[in-house]
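Hello forum,

I keep getting stuck at the same step: I have a sequence, I want structure tokens, and every attempt I make locally crashes halfway through. Rather than fight my setup again tonight, could one of you with a working pipeline run this one for me? It's a single chain of 110 residues.
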Amino acid sequence: MNHKISEALKSGLIGGTLGGVVSGLLNFFVCPFPKNVMDNGWSKIVKEQHIRFSLKEGNVTVHGIGFGMADKFHLLQLKKPVDVVFTIDTNEWNGITSLQIRVIDFRLSE
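Reply #2:
Ran it on my machine without issues. Output:
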């Protein structure tokens, strides 16, 4: 992992009222997730190349996509905490727009 994970974004900022006004600005920032984030068992490989993430930290769950990361899926299957570097993005599906994380990289927590 070539990204420095040094500062944590408070996970509570991802849900709730963060909304459309702020989400456009956040696309310009790379944010490390708090350490010891866990896959909640719903993450999966999509289109043979990507990971659809479903991660939790405490009682907060976030969903996202990691393009070209299918080769790292085995790390999530270990059911161990991970550190994640991401940007916040919007997901448009079936006419519904929601916030998601776009995973840049992840590793097992140290």
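Residues 1-29 have pLDDT under 50 and may be disordered. If your local run keeps crashing, start a new thread with the error log.
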